[in-house]
Design a protein that fits this description.
With about 425 residues, the chain is mainly α. It contains 21 helices and no strands. The chain is globular, with a radius of gyration of 21 Å.
Length: about 425
């Protein structure tokens, strides 16, 4: 049982003082962890043209290397979620960030295909804990009515990280070379880890900066109040009997298959298919991610307002925003036939924004449906299946491009999966509510 430094005020008592804002510092650190996460995983994509040339790698080989990250990342989602729920998100996320930062730094020592693949797998080991931990932190530190907003904010860090990585890495490579660039980027996460261990506390009750007013606001607004006891409501594998868990997993697989095109093959697409030079690519490739970052936060905030208004049920709200997002994401297929590079980039911006509109709901769903003290593991299960899209996506795209000499069939295949994702959320996802223990 967790011993709390503060008690939850009676829910009938109205706070008289202005509440503290510690939870927003926490969400900033969560956002920053995801941003660093994506900067680290995107370095390889930004440096791919240089690495491919130096080691004489084929498109198929680069596809395997890019997907290698997802082998360990996907397989360790459930163990990472279980560990975070049992031993705490503070330890889990803190050590994970330091691990993957070191893995990033040593990638600069790679000498060819095998070593690149090995370092990429090691990166996935650390990064597996990021999203399950953040989902668990959100369930403890924020009231239910801020759920989609918080989820969209921390997930938007992935778009910022992916976007800033492109021009940043291209500039660093030009300055110090691609090998030293991995070392420099790896140091960011180590600094974050030190700050995290000093500032963050497992529960809002344990943080000296949280006053009673903020604590009342957080805990009185939660249906489950995760973290006040340590016992999970059921065994993790018992979650597999629920239809909504499967719908969440399958839907997110489709979203991630499409989403990871933007951090793996987009640079090569812009150079090879649209004729951009490396400097142009570095900036243009960031546009879909930057636009999507803003759109995601707006979508999360808007969906919370819609749900709170009572005009739509929580289930209807989640489904509405998921379907809107996926319809936007299907524009990736239209981009294949765009006559100009400008139109193609506009359509890709819409497509990427669509995946983030959907993601604002995807990362709220674990807190919506998880039994008590199981949010991280539900998020881990969802992310396990979804990131199989990250495993197969780069490989399938690589082989399609190698076989056809064009990205057009690969983009059309991605759009076809989006249609299946829409049907999944319409028909398989049921009522959004906590699962019975």
């Amino acid at each position: 049982m967790i011993e709390n430094k503060q008690t939850i005020p009676n829910e009938g008592i109205q706070p008289a003082r202005k509440k503290s804002k510690v939870r927003w510092v926490v969400i900033f650190l969560m956002w920053l962890a995801i941003a660093i996460n994506y900067i680290d995983r995107t370095v390889l994509s930004a440096a791919a043209p240089y690495i491919t040339e130096e080691f004489h790698l084929s498109a198929a080989q680069m596809g395997v290397i890019m997907s290698g990250f997802f082998w360990s990342y996907a397989l360790l989602q459930i163990p990472a979620g279980w560990f975070a729920d049992k031993y705490g998100q503070k330890k889990t996320l803190g050590f994970a960030v330091i691990w993957w930062s070191v893995a990033t730094a040593v990638t600069g020592l790679a000498t060819g295909f095998k070593s690149l693949l090995g370092f990429r797998v090691a990166l996935g080991v650390g990064e597996a804990a990021a999203y399950p931990s953040n989902a668990g932190i959100a369930s403890k530190w924020f009231p239910d009515k801020e759920r989609a907003t918080v989820s969209s904010i921390f997930d938007s860090g992935s778009k910022f990280g992916g976007a800033i990585a492109m021009p940043l890495i291209v500039w660093l490579i030009a300055l110090v070379g691609w090998k030293a660039t991995f070392v420099v980027i790896g140091l960011l996460g180590v600094v974050w880890g030190v700050i995290w261990f000093i500032y963050f506390k497992e529960n809002p009750e344990d943080h000296k900066g949280v006053n009673e007013e903020e604590l009342h606001y957080i805990r009185s607004g939660q249906s489950r109040k995760d973290g006040l006891s340590s016992a999970p409501a059921m065994k993790w594998y018992e979650l597999l009997k629920y239809r909504n868990i499967w719908a969440m997993c399958l839907g997110f697989f489709v979203i991630n298959y499409n989403s990871y095109f933007f951090i793996t093959w987009l640079p090569s697409y812009l150079v090879e298919e649209r004729g951009m030079n490396l400097i142009e690519m570095g900036f243009i490739a960031s546009l879909p991610l930057l636009v999507a970052m803003v759109v995601e936060v707006i979508a999360g905030w808007t969906s919370d307002k819609v749900a709170a208004s009572g005009k739509l049920s929580l289930t209807a709200t989640r489904k509405l925003f998921l379907i809107i997002g996926l319809l936007m994401a299907s524009c990736i297929g239209f981009a294949a036939f765009a006559d100009s590079a400008v139109l193609a980039v506009v359509l890709l911006c819409i497509a990427k924004s669509g995946t983030t509109v959907a993601a604002s709901q995807v990362w709220a769903l674990p807190s919506d449906v998880a039994p008590k003290n199981m949010t991280s593991i539900v998020a881990g299960m969802q992310n396990t299946v979804s990131n199989m899209g990250g495993v197969v996506g780069p490989i399938i795209t690589g082989f399609i491009v190698a076989a056809t000499g064009s990205f057009v069939p690969a983009l059309l295949f991605s759009a076809g999966l989006i249609i299946l994702g829409i049907f999944n959320y319409i028909f398989l996802l049921g009522k959004v509510e906590p699962l019975d223990a």
